[in-house]
Amino acid sequence: MSWIIYSFISLVAFSIMVILITGQTKKGFSVPFTLAFVVGLWIPFFGFWLLWKGVDFFISGQVIIILISGGILAVIANWCTFKSANDSPNPGFTFAITNSSPILIALAGKFFLQKELTFLKLIGILISVAGIIILIFLSAGKREKKKKWWIINSLIALLASAVFAVLIVILLDKGVCSVVILFSTAVLGFTVYFFWSRSESNSLL
Asked: How many CB atoms sit inside 10 A of residue 117's CB?
């Protein structure tokens, strides 16, 4: 199957997930609880896939450190993303910023991974950055003065997701199976979100 088809499937699936999660958080469910529920659904799927394919789980200590680092970044990126989406004037504003991570990935790829960065790609990056700046300044004039933290959370999510993507590239270059990466990230994410949501529940009692 072509990478373009995979990209469109991912676009549709992720958009539906965003709408559902944001809808639940706006109804009053906490972000950690909602993410724990969603990520918890991924674990059996990825685990079954790994068992079915018979993937070797033996990985080096260096890879384990990268996996843990990537999982922590994914937790930060997801929480900041959906916290921002819940507080922003429009969830689309949040994802216009966080989905700009390819900008940072392209720059990191150029300087750290020796990836190509053409003049045309650089022009595209500059246009994207200009769009983000315009979006932030336009939203600054909105009435939600007390909710300006959504911008900060969006930028943190942007940075965390970009570094996470770079770590994924490094892991893939080392021959680590992509589903192993997803499974490890899901397990770590579920653990953090679960205990985070529990601590929030206990603080309300």
From this structure: 13
**Separation CA 81–CA 88 (nearest Å):** 10
First to last CA, the chain: 51
CA distance 195 to 13: 27
Residue with tokens 């390819």: 102
Per-residue pLDDT of 7-56, as tens digits, reads 788 778 877 888 888 888 878 888 888 889 888 888 898 888 888 877 76
Question: 3-class secondary structure for 19-32?
Answer: HHHHHHHHCCCCHH
The secondary structure of 80-138 as a DSSP string is HHHHHHHHSSSHHHHHHHHTTHHHHHHHHHHHHS-----HHHHHHHHHHHHHHHHHHHH
Map residue 150 onto helix, strand or coil.
Answer: helix
User: Cβ distance 55 to 180 under 8 Å?
Assistant: yes
Across 14-37, b (16+ Cβ under 10 Å) vs e yields eeeebeebbebbeeebbbbbbbbb
Distance CA 95, CA 115 (A): 26
> Per residue in 45-93, pLDDT tens?
888 888 887 776 667 888 889 989 988 999 999 899 888 888 887 777 7
